[in-house]
Queue: 2 jobs
Job 1
Amino acid sequence: MSVDVTEIGSIPDAWTRRHLLGLEDLSREELNIVLDSAEMFRDATDDCTRKISVLAGHTCANLFFENSTRTRTSFSLAMRRLGGDTVDFASGSSSMSKGETVIDTAKNIEAMGISVVVCRHRTPGTPHLLANNLRCSVVNAGDGPHEHPTQGLLDILTIRQRRGTLEGLTVALVGDIQYSRTARSNIWGLKKLGAHVIVCGPATLVSPMWRELGVEVSHNLDEIIPRCDVLNLLRIQFERQSTRPFPSVREYAHLYAMNRQRMDRAKDGVLILAPGPINRGVEVTTDVADGPQSVILEQVTNGLAVRMAVLWLVCGASIREAE
Amino acid sequence: MSVDVTEIGSIPDAWTRRHLLGLEDLSREELNIVLDSAEMFRDATDDCTRKISVLAGHTCANLFFENSTRTRTSFSLAMRRLGGDTVDFASGSSSMSKGETVIDTAKNIEAMGISVVVCRHRTPGTPHLLANNLRCSVVNAGDGPHEHPTQGLLDILTIRQRRGTLEGLTVALVGDIQYSRTARSNIWGLKKLGAHVIVCGPATLVSPMWRELGVEVSHNLDEIIPRCDVLNLLRIQFERQSTRPFPSVREYAHLYAMNRQRMDRAKDGVLILAPGPINRGVEVTTDVADGPQSVILEQVTNGLAVRMAVLWLVCGASIREAE
Amino acid sequence: MSVDVTEIGSIPDAWTRRHLLGLEDLSREELNIVLDSAEMFRDATDDCTRKISVLAGHTCANLFFENSTRTRTSFSLAMRRLGGDTVDFASGSSSMSKGETVIDTAKNIEAMGISVVVCRHRTPGTPHLLANNLRCSVVNAGDGPHEHPTQGLLDILTIRQRRGTLEGLTVALVGDIQYSRTARSNIWGLKKLGAHVIVCGPATLVSPMWRELGVEVSHNLDEIIPRCDVLNLLRIQFERQSTRPFPSVREYAHLYAMNRQRMDRAKDGVLILAPGPINRGVEVTTDVADGPQSVILEQVTNGLAVRMAVLWLVCGASIREAE
């Protein structure tokens, strides 16, 4: 019931990174290595349901200073399906609240024989700080509003699986762009792979400054819909907002929810993505979320495949460097 | 140190259920398949201390919307002793508090390559809702006051191990019947296997309506004691009650605690069960809880055996269906 | 990627303990068995990064009534690197808050087929109570201010690795001695292995009563520094103190922080230990903590090795006894 390790082989020579900190740094070739590896793992493990022992003996530490069940679990399952082990260090746990620095916490974890630290922190650059101070690998699982590279990669992999290529596609990121690390990682990745990116949402959540990243800015979803091959509906993070950036949820949904009427005006074969957890009736109506164009659950399965690929690549680069 | 998988073989042809939602649905034959399988696993693994790799590569997700250390741990250990893996989704964790529906949460978990979801929720029917919406297996680990089938099965297995059969035995469920899922699951299982069931407790906790389930109703423990082969002392759930259904703990213990004096009036070989955690001096006195008639700790070990059997059966039925 | 079990062999005949409750009980020979075993595991597993399957099929339960990420994780990783499995029972979890006694909780855990219980509790003697009532092994992971034997052992192992022997060394324990289980375990272990021990700190944290344990008492770090081979800088536990035992943190640091000036007056090759998490600038300045004399991170790695050795020894003694 487990996959033969020899099917997998060693990591590509062109991959030399011990860390994955963001998609801004990656070349087009490196992006394709991760995506190709993820597809290989997805195929070799029957949609991520079988084990493959390429990281047996290795341990991944989830160092999450912000809560996350979903991303943390996805990384844990990915590591274990590679034959490795995981330990969790949750925010608010004892050692983190005892006045220790982030680097000291991470160095202590590393000294327990850890191969890779997966880090989420509300401060942008924390994973970079760790990468500069640890000998083990570091993967960014979200640093404030900066980057969330595996989310970007799983979104891109899902589009590539359905459409074959990103080249020439028009992808709209809709909704809460301002504080979204998912938006930033998507933009870097999508543009390098040849897609045209539109960011779309109310002016309070989408500033004209985004044009500096080489993307189109829109405040009118209805205007851009007929041009889009992909709509990635970012979550309105009610739990993070003290004041709402729009008058009411109903008003937001009226202007930006993806619903049947808007689907009718969209291209044939348009893909609906959402990073979840989704607010049904806010970013997307139920018929669209559960409809044939929705690839929301494929994103989740691809998340595992992407994380298997990333863990395998960064650990492999560490091992090769040590040899 | 692990058991040869070939000793176990495949699941019985008569078992076709991908889910275990309650004992009300099960036939007498199905009940016996679970109990026989549990005994097989208990024997094959030396009282559940050795591993057996029949579910290697499979992952079980514990989706507990209500707290439970004990049941969750028992399911986790059962899955891992079958060679499988587990992930926990605890109540109050981030994704569950972000306004997502239960079905969306479960579908997301399923999309991570999960074979079986073990669900506890305070709303009766939640596991049934999931079973109708997921392709993977679902096991009910307690849905409000409705059912807790593995608790019923482990109680019944413990009685069967000591007495050989349930046929003709008189089993009293004593105490907090009203809101007890354990009581309901015991009643369905015990009656199908031929036992006579008495529910006994103060009128505030035991309504005459229970007669509709075909059981005897009593408010007087002393009166029924001489007729009972088994006394299952349900926990008084102080932590769930805002107003007490009896004047004082002392008064409850006076009328319903199983103590030495009551043991002297009981049948020879009477069995004392309690689902735990027990309140010593409330439902049961220390000398009885730790005495030779008490099978309280055997219940815990049988809980593991029953959960190994259930996970093996429902996953096996899923695999067979997929083939 | 895993170690051949036959390299390890069986536990030494001279080790007969099923429990590790404290270093006060251990003979010099037993201390050396643990230290030698820890070195063997450290070497055999490449600084605790590889697996060795000597406890395959066994499960360790972490029963922590006090919070601890670090110690708990270290035990978990140690057990899993021995091929075993772990389950956590955290303080404040449901079963523990339902009025159950500690012994009942532990017996329930044992009945799930657990081989070893690792226990932390704020009441001194709790692990001893469990050891008297369980058939499985018990390891003390800290009982109030009493003992924390694996911390003592890892401190001693770290000194022995650097200096070859403890015999004739002068070791100072500096800081918060009064409520420190680490201090007590260190004292018992160090003295049996032939070291001279000084406890040093403000009079509010270091009473003259400590002389009864056969150690030197000092309130003046500067006076003792030139004589010390090892300085073990115990953590000032701000989070446990309602009133501070010294006027200000600055004053404490002025008198007791290990800094560059004090290092200049210390012996060549003095070792700086700290159990962590460290308060930089309080017990130790950054240049010293990160300097060449600091063995703080070696302590963490040795903690894993010591816990592998302890789990292997106590489980081995249980297995031998059962045969």
Job 2
Amino acid sequence: MIKAGIIGSTGYAGAELVRILLAHKEVEIAWYGSRSYVDEPYSSIYRNFFQVVDAKCMDDNMEELSRQADVIFTATPQGLCASLVNEDILSRCKVIDLSADFRIKDVNVYEKWYGIEHKAPQFIGEAVYGLCERNREQIRSARLVANPGCYPTCSFLSVYPLAKEGIIDMSTLIIDAKSGTSGAGRGAKTANLFCEVNENIKAYGVAGHRHTPEIEEQLSYASGEDVTISFTPHLVPMNRGILVTAYASVKKDVTPEEMRQLYHDYYDKEYFVRVLEDGVCPETRWVEGSNYVDVNIKYDPRTRRVIMMGAMDNLVKGAAGQAVQNMNLMFGFKEQEGLELLPVFP
Amino acid sequence: MIKAGIIGSTGYAGAELVRILLAHKEVEIAWYGSRSYVDEPYSSIYRNFFQVVDAKCMDDNMEELSRQADVIFTATPQGLCASLVNEDILSRCKVIDLSADFRIKDVNVYEKWYGIEHKAPQFIGEAVYGLCERNREQIRSARLVANPGCYPTCSFLSVYPLAKEGIIDMSTLIIDAKSGTSGAGRGAKTANLFCEVNENIKAYGVAGHRHTPEIEEQLSYASGEDVTISFTPHLVPMNRGILVTAYASVKKDVTPEEMRQLYHDYYDKEYFVRVLEDGVCPETRWVEGSNYVDVNIKYDPRTRRVIMMGAMDNLVKGAAGQAVQNMNLMFGFKEQEGLELLPVFP
Amino acid sequence: MIKAGIIGSTGYAGAELVRILLAHKEVEIAWYGSRSYVDEPYSSIYRNFFQVVDAKCMDDNMEELSRQADVIFTATPQGLCASLVNEDILSRCKVIDLSADFRIKDVNVYEKWYGIEHKAPQFIGEAVYGLCERNREQIRSARLVANPGCYPTCSFLSVYPLAKEGIIDMSTLIIDAKSGTSGAGRGAKTANLFCEVNENIKAYGVAGHRHTPEIEEQLSYASGEDVTISFTPHLVPMNRGILVTAYASVKKDVTPEEMRQLYHDYYDKEYFVRVLEDGVCPETRWVEGSNYVDVNIKYDPRTRRVIMMGAMDNLVKGAAGQAVQNMNLMFGFKEQEGLELLPVFP
Amino acid sequence: MIKAGIIGSTGYAGAELVRILLAHKEVEIAWYGSRSYVDEPYSSIYRNFFQVVDAKCMDDNMEELSRQADVIFTATPQGLCASLVNEDILSRCKVIDLSADFRIKDVNVYEKWYGIEHKAPQFIGEAVYGLCERNREQIRSARLVANPGCYPTCSFLSVYPLAKEGIIDMSTLIIDAKSGTSGAGRGAKTANLFCEVNENIKAYGVAGHRHTPEIEEQLSYASGEDVTISFTPHLVPMNRGILVTAYASVKKDVTPEEMRQLYHDYYDKEYFVRVLEDGVCPETRWVEGSNYVDVNIKYDPRTRRVIMMGAMDNLVKGAAGQAVQNMNLMFGFKEQEGLELLPVFP
């Protein structure tokens, strides 16, 4: 039984961490951090946990927390984890950062896209990008894991086999993504009010969303070339879920069956990635509440493009679930421990 | 490890049974019944179970099923269970009927409100009304359990302590209930299309909904008098959840604190009933996906009425979860086995 | 052609006033007031009016506005209109207040329920309660109209004929109301975020909502007795619409047909009140975007109660549409001028 | 005052035609056709029109209808209009077909994509593709207008200026579209039930949607080359609205400002096409209920691609509104007559 602390436990990703960790056999939550609600009972913020969680919210004293916990999750806006983490903390305690602070290896790229100074660039090198299906071995021994962004996770896993095998022309890759509104966080902003989001769909961050360089970096590693993509996220009137529809030209002479076989080769051994049957498109409803990513492709002979699709729950595989998957690897637990969540439908 | 069969496993309640039973340590699902989809893979109907359930759908041969299973759940329209069940089956196998067939003790009342002839009135007497918080002991030894309706469960639990203790004038009781759309089932009806339900609220079955006599019967037992109520259900544009707002005049000289204390007295020992803090109203979002019922009351000194409120997930505590709770009691498992589901929010 | 000014034009009710007035033949909008957005183009806040409205937002200088406009609408939180209005302004310009400031005749009741001091009690007496179907004649000559609240409008019109005719026992009246989320306004509050409202239903303001005394006052006038009611509003995950379900015991010996006939007697001549066919329940989707109120009743012989139901669009008949209806009366225009809006479905 | 008949008036597009035509000064609806509801009052199907429409539903006798009406709208599934129309009818009466029957000039393409035999190929040649912004003059004198599909309308208008001016490489064009659920029609299908659509997003018809050849044909005319595109529609949990996000490589040396200027050049004179301000993305909520199409582009210097975006109401500009716009042109009415509908928000 290890002890976990959560900094930022009252955001949506933080609350999902609580939901998952409470049912995890090997973990006890020792610290419900939330700067905005210090001393308020956690279950008065998230009443789903009434009579389940007794604890009160704590501040974000990572120093102190690192003495009480074996692992710290930071589910906070970018910049906070980098400003708090230090060698002392890392020597005592593992850190899984759900923010973007340690995802991008080139600090200049980070600072340019996020518009803030990185306060702990010395740890970028050792931080492991926590996409378990990709970096499983390094994660096992990491002290600091950069938990991937929601869009990057779904985008990468949807495209990975064809990128890695050099099947698609990476310069033609376009990712059109759609997300539920929990991805926008729990901040009290007019733009996220029910009446503003409901009965609407919009693109945002067009040609400038911060997840772009993260996706590009990971796909560059995978494909072995410098990748620049078009990435457009959209806001969908639903609570959870991300759907990725990606397009690329096929540059090798392969059949659709061979392409689909690659997905099976890459993912059939993966517990959380489901390659759907031929002709079945991923839908967010089939993964809601679970750590699954459903993927599939469709080849279009008219355009010689392949459409790569993926669906997952942005709060689970896109945030808290993946963080726990990382924790499981880091502590030698069974990888799917606490994550055998069945999708909830309807 | 017992074996369970589900007749009607492709309705929403049936699918929720699957979700719950798959994660239940003591049960294996041996029969996914679905007359409409015989021989089709279950996971092609509910793709959330892709790579989780391999079985194909079976017909509704209860006779045969009773030889293979220890317990049969019938999640079918009223009339089917009564037309299939017989002494042979009951001698081999326990039956939990999620339909209304065995909920009402007076067969005339059943036939009048449901408009069909009851095909197995001989079993009405022995059937136990499966509201665990109320009939726990009889359920343990029952062969046939009538799983309560969704509205009756939430209505009864919201009102029970004050009805039982004679605090409220039962002749003044009015129950105004609101339900998510999964309660309307998965039948392809125009009225349940997305565009018909979305952005709308309506009452239905006003002064004539079939759950009325069921609520009245149970409240009559509780209060010791013949209860006739006003009951109005409403359809809400959301997937899951039932909210009950009940009104009654207070006839005894009690304080609000004393009334709230009664709820604590009745429910503090109940795992699945949560009496909220003073002033906090139940909301369906806080119980979604779980077997909890959240209840609370508010006394209005201006009218000398008490407003009794309850919220639960209609597919869990209102159907599949309660059915599993009954199964747990009938087989001597821990009552909350497989039901320690944390509510999923958002 | 008269000139209208709107104080609070960037709230939802204000924006609906804009939508209606822009299509009104006899009115020109001269002032888009919005303290929060002074000098910003109105159409940058409400982009539906892009290339339709050129004006910029103005402050809430009612003094100056009263020199430029023939009528002022105040679509602002309670207290503001009372703090700004004065004899000078009223001598120059008609005022239609969409807030609660002048709805309640007893200033003590206002101050108790709203928790603020009334800054202009001297005008309460002359203010006319702007429920056109009820006070048509007085409205025609009013300088100051108190536009009714959304819940009171729907509640009153649903209950009025039976209250007025002494058919129901007013001491048994219970109003259970449900509203779309635009009723909660456009303020950036966590409780109104998409993910908090979506997939949820809750009661709020139980036994204490501020619209209670307003409904009671109007029903007292109608019935000729002192009315105290139970009133419970609920928040529904939809943008627009209010549904009222009201319950009362029938105290006179009348048939259901006679009761329904009273609704026809009272409302058949009313353009905006539609008495539905026998057995048809009001639904908010059938009135969305229009100034209609749909009403109907159902008598329950088992309980001797009548269930009175009403549905309307909270932003139209519940706010902006009724305000324009008042304006039409005050300026001698055709009552339905600019309000012949057909409901938009789906 | 002309007389209009609607075949298929009880589908969503048909009902929207009713809403628009009822408020149109120059038109009277003479025939509410609906094979499924013959002899039922139209307002019992669409209760928003209670006390507004008295007529009963009629069969789809186009022959008879053509004797009573000046214009016939067919808002029916593909195949019906082609099977009913003939020279006699066209000699008496103008026909605006909202189905796909006369949109595609090559009958083989039609038959291949729609999988049915075309019953009236002799009229394909004379039928005018009713995209008013493109074919205004031919529409004025047409007897038979093929009203464009919803996706094609929004796709074409979003891309047109850059396609026509040869700015983009048409072989790189990818259109990712998202639609509200009213686009799926009112048929009672399980896939369109509330609980199936709500809280979900999915792609459908990937690399095979029937609107593909229609978009390609129109863009081929515009660009002067043979265009083959990737087109992927998605289903969004909202009632109305289509959003198009289109991607193409820029092949000419133009600045973003020059590209945006082209949109102004093409559309500033168009009443229904709004070119948004620089940096503002189209959103469906800003056009809901109106005949507007909002468009904008964003150039991405990193990829040298331009993202072209458009939003409109699928039932208005994507169906009924455009049909009325066509009618206005065909009968010499003001083009925006009856279509000056302000978008309804929220």
